[in-house]
Amino acid sequence: MEDNVITVRGLVKRYQDLIAVDGVDLDVRSGEIFSILGPNGAGKTTTVEILECIRKATEGEVTILGHDLRTGGKEIRRQIGVLPQEFNAFDLLTVRENIAFFAGMYDRQADVDELISLVDLEHKRDTYFKNLSGGLKQRVGIAIAMVNDPRIVFLDEPTTGLDPGARREVWEVIRGLRAKGRTIILTTHYMEEAEVLSDRLAIMNQGKFIALGSPSEVVAQHGGGRTCVIRGGGEAAMRSLHDMGPERDGDDVSVRIVHKEDLVSIVTALNRDGVEYEEVMLKRPTLEDVFLKLTGKSIEGGEISG
Amino acid sequence: MANRVKMVFSGLAKQFFRSPGSVFWTIAFPVMLILIFGAIFSGTGVSKYDLYVQDLDDSLVSGIYIDGLEATGVLNIHEVPVNEDVDAFIERNSVVNLLIIPAGFGQALTSGSEIEVTLRQDSTAGSSRAVLAAVNAVTQQANNEVTGGREVITVRSGSIVSEDLSFIDFFLPGTIGLMVMMIAVQSIVGYQTRFRNNGIFRKLATTPMNNAEWLSGMMLWMLVMVAISVAAIMVTGMLMYDVRMSLDLMAIAMIVVATGLFTAIGMIISQFVKDEEVAGTAAGAITFPMMFLSGSFFPLESMPEYLQAFAQVLPLTYVNNGLRDAMVYGNASGAMDNLLIVLVMAVAFIVVTVAISGWKKE
Ligand SMILES: Nc1ncnc2c1ncn2[C@@H]1O[C@H](COP(=O)(O)OP(=O)(O)O)[C@@H](O)[C@H]1O
Ligand SMILES: [Mg+2]
């Protein structure tokens, strides 16, 4: 068995004249958390639902666990677990009953009580689903995704709408799955989630993967290097540094560091011209910067808007 | 396979019993219907009832007899011309109570020989018992006056619809038909749209379960809900109105087939209307006309011609007719005919359902 559990080549999905997925190539390695990060409408759900065998691709080759998607659907379904986007289990069944219900759909079933402790819900075992908080509901959803003891788990926006605390708890559960050797494919539109949780990630926009790799690789490749920020430098700093292509953001001025010596030149120039400023700092680019740069989209509170 | 159907069934069952609204709807609603309609139609209030009289004797004596009827104060007497064909007259005027005084009535009375008046009634109408009682009382009085108690005049009661039936006998099977439709259509539409919007269908699509298993589990559960409702209806009828009807094999077959039919209709509605609230309205728009136009509450015969014609295309009409044939009239061949019609409709709708209900597809 090779290392890649999923390989995708040239995946395309068209709806009439809309291209929802536009030539995606992807390899997912065994045991990793792979995130697809992108705004609403980027094509994340369409992509994962094709891999889950519930939508048909227009074009492209997909192999999952050695089975061709077109012919091995039945076998693939047995070995994958899915948490659909905006999933709500049965309101008037308890946590345990809900998990048992979905387990009953499979011939090979994981132990329901073990799943309950996997998502840390022992204390809510007999609570109706409708009475759970958002974060706990998502944890039930993750347990339900695990009922057939799958090798690959698809989680479509598992933390959307949760408060930061609940989100972190879900992350812990997801890390727990990885620790048990599962491969996880996750979609999200939270920067931080993709950055701290994924082993590797892809940034998706308008049906295309526009960046792919580990979080640090993606940042290194697309972040545009480090920048020096002169806080409170204002117009004086702009004039003093105008040879180095400064950019202004309010009273702050930033300059890209291309060579190591650039930092020295900046400080020298500022001193020479007697520019007053609050402080000089060196900034590493984040995934957020990469995203802004690649898509031109705005970000509010770590969440991609629009 | 069997396990998945069982899971669907028991999952729905558990949720049902935890939802007071559903239980109320299934049990209390039909019980209230029977009690309310029963009270309205079996009540013998002070209101007057229409009695049509065809006086073929047209003598002084028959005139006195008719005056006696009028004097009871509960009857509005309408004369029917002597040359009218009674059957045509009944049909044309939706007559529910008609008394025929035969020629020779006065003669017989004066000579003391026995004679028979005929009272034809639609026994399903609420007024039938009161009218019969009034006619009997007046006749008894006439007998007393003329002969000192010997029964000279006897009242032969003939029915327009059927014999010895009260409104409740008519109404009970109608309520069963109505509830089969309401339960199946409303619940299926509710379940389908809710589960679709909650992502449960998308989740199930990734499991080995298929459409047929889902549909089977749903249908089984519908049968149980219907059975609960039918039991509530029958028990209410027996306790409150002393109804002595039984569910024979034919009636049970009709209930089962009708449940399949309306389950399929619910599936089809929910396939086209995705929004939960809109779907509820759509279900109402389809069940509401059937509720009133398929003879659940009122006999089809009492409706205008064009509505009667419309009723012929409504599935519930055949369910109601079949149930009455089986439960009330003991008309086995009529019940069989209606059952076959409903069966054909059920098969057709189920085939359409299986063909179009693509919760597996996108
Ligand atoms: N069934 C469908 N029919 C037509 N268009 C669709 C359908 N599903 C998704 N789309 C379109 O495809 C694009 C990608 O959608 P989606 O995969 O849901 O994005 P994401 O999950 O990243 O928010 C969107 O523009 C969406 O409107
Ligand atoms: Mg999505």
What's a concise summary of this model?
The complex is a heterodimer of chains A (306) and B (362). Chain A is an alpha/beta fold and 306 residues long. Helices cover 33% and strands 28% of the residues of chain A.
Structure write-up:
The complex is a heterodimer of chains A (306) and B (362). With 306 residues, chain A is of the alpha/beta class. Helix content of chain A is 33%, strand content 28%. Chain A has 11 helices and 16 strands. In chain A, the strands form 4 sheets. In chain A, strands 6-7-8-3-9-10 form a 6-stranded mixed beta sheet, sandwiched between helices. In chain A, helix 3 crosses helix 4, helix 3 (95-103) packs parallel to helix 5 and helix 8 (215-222) packs across helix 11 (287-295). The two termini of chain A are 41 Å apart. Chain B has 362 residues and is of the alpha/beta class. Chain B has a 5-stranded mixed beta sheet with strand order 2-1-3-4-5. The model of chain B has no long low-confidence stretch (mean pLDDT 85). Chains A and B meet through helix 2, strand 6 and helix 3 of A and helix 1 and helix 8 of B. The complex binds adenosine-5'-diphosphate and magnesium ion (MG). Adenosine-5'-diphosphate is lined by residues 15, 18, 20, 38, 40-46 of chain A.
Number of strands of chain A: 16
H/I helix tally of chain B: 14
By CATH, the topology of the domain at 4-79 and 151-221 in chain A is: Rossmann fold
Summarize model confidence as the mean pLDDT of chain B.
85
Q: From the coordinates shown, what is the CATH architecture of the domain at 4-79 and 151-221 in chain A?
A: 3-Layer(aba) Sandwich
Helix-strand pattern of chain A: EEEHEEHEHHHEHEHEEHEHEEHEHEE
Shape of chain A: elongated
Question: Ranges of chain B with pLDDT <50 over ≥5 residues?
Answer: none
Are there runs of chain A of 5+ residues with pLDDT below 50, and where?
Answer: none
Q: How many strands appear in the DSSP assignment of chain B?
A: 5
Rg of chain A (CA only): 23 Å
